[in-house]
Description:
- By secondary structure, the chain is α/β, with parallel strands linked by helices.
- The chain is built from 13 helices and 13 strands.
- Bound molecules: pyridoxal-5'-phosphate.
- Pyridoxal-5'-phosphate (PLP) binds next to helix 5.
- Pyridoxal-5'-phosphate binds next to helix 5.
Amino acid sequence: xxxxxxxxxxxxxxxxxxxxxxxxxxxxxxxxxxxxxxxxxxxxxxxxxxxxxxxxxxxxxxxxxxxxxxxxxxxxxxxxxxxxxxxxxxxxxxxxxxxxxxxxxxxxxxxxxxxxxxxxxxxxxxxxxxxxxxxxxxxxxxxxxxxxxxxxxxxxxxxxxxxxxxxxxxxxxxxxxxxxxxxxxxxxxxxxxxxxxxxxxxxxxxxxxxxxxxxxxxxxxxxxxxxxxxxxxxxxxxxxxxxxxxxxxxxxxxxxxxxxxxxxxxxxxxxxxxxxxxxxxxxxxxxxxxxxxxxxxxxxxxxxxxxxxxxxxxxxxxxxxxxxxxxxxxxxxxxxxxxxxxxxxxxxxx
Length: 350
Ligand SMILES: *Cc1c(COP(=O)(O)O)cnc(C)c1O
């Protein structure tokens, strides 16, 4: 046994580090990124903003950027926001507030970082399997709440990797019955017709997470936590003083002003989503599942074979195959890129 394997906690030794697929030269349809680049004029202005920043100084107050985000995401003025280095950092910060014996509840399948970060923090993570419609099993969830009093319940809405919004009534029941905090993670809010932001005023134990990663700015790493003022004030004590770097702050404060463009781009993706959904389902061997996000989960006869075929043809999607479920996840892109993907699928089945 090496020094480090003796030294490290067993749960950490058991973790597989998050792997980023090699995607050079490939059409990236694996990570729910937006396909839209900045136009030339915006690029030029962005460069000006960036070159005027004082990178010898620590980042300045986040207030200005917070206000831009409140406006972009229609967050009521009486609520507070806290920014994170990606919403991943905010998920970590939420669990940092927990202590030893606390239990964290999630669903299965859902966003993998909830479980991973719970392990980092030495917390007991439990998950409840979704039902056959990928919805919450409310009876099991309420039972778990009654027995275990989870300190935090993470609900991705829409859910990743299934793409659907869970039943709103079930989530409301969970918030009402939970003794701990309920975190509704709206990473895909731009592609969904519903949100829990307006419910925050009703419930002291509700927090909503959002991010700019899925609306065109994954490279900036900027997440948002939304809650009542007194709630955010407590969590803000756990935030690293300068967690958002100056280049991200300056770029985001400029780029996120263009709300119209961001909404326009999201609408293009929503239109494309229904086209890709129809097309995928027109193949006899494919079942695509309804999505409220910018990706589609679909089931095939042989997930590895289709994944490898696409990969060989330089199209990268996400292989979610486990326990013989044969599911794959594809990110919705521009019309041209979706067509390229669909043509390869067609070729595979011919
Ligand atoms: C992508 C994703 C995130 C991560 O967002 P970042 O801001 O890029 O860290 C959080 N939650 C869900 C459900 C996601 O799918």
